[in-house]
Amino acid sequence: MTIRTPDAVVASLTADTSPYLSCDECFERVDQYVDALLLDPQHADPAMHAHLRGCAACREEAEALLELVAADAVR
Ligand SMILES: [Zn+2]
Questions:
Q1: pLDDT tens figures, 8-19
Q2: Residue 11 CB neighbour total at 10 angstroms
Q3: Which 8-state DSSP code applies to residue 7?
Q4: How far is the centre of ligand 1, averaged over its atoms, from the C-alpha of 39 (Å)?
Q5: For residue 1, how far is its CA from the centre of ligand 1 (angstroms)?
Q6: pLDDT tens digits, residue range 53-72?
Q7: Contact at 8 Å (CB) between 72 and 43?
Q8: Rounded mean pLDDT of the chain?
């Protein structure tokens, strides 16, 4: 188990946009990420954030999925 200091968490959130997940890893986690975001809009996943900020392809994928799941939830 990794213990993070608040400084490290803040640094990971404000770090530059270099993604440290690969697109494959991002793709594997995006379902989970979107579900978590819908349950809690404040949900923070620094690794996903960093990747989505730096990778337009995955960001579009995540946004499309979010819209899809959100539309589904309303039904
Ligand atoms: Zn990507």
A1: 666 655 555 554
A2: 12
A3: H
A4: 23
A5: 26
A6: 989 999 999 999 999 988 88
A7: no
A8: 83
For residues 32 and 29, give the distance between their C-alpha atoms in angstroms, rounded to a whole number. 5
One-character DSSP codes across 53-68: HH-HHHHHHHHHHHHH
Query: How far is ligand 1, taken at its centre, from the CA of residue 12, in Å?
Result: 17
Which 8-state DSSP code applies to residue 15?
S
- Gap from CA of 58 to ligand 1 centroid (Å): 4
Q: Which residue has the higher pLDDT, 5 or 47?
A: 47
For residues 23 and 58, the answer to whether their CB atoms sit within 8 Å is: yes
Both structure tokens of 51 = 């990747």
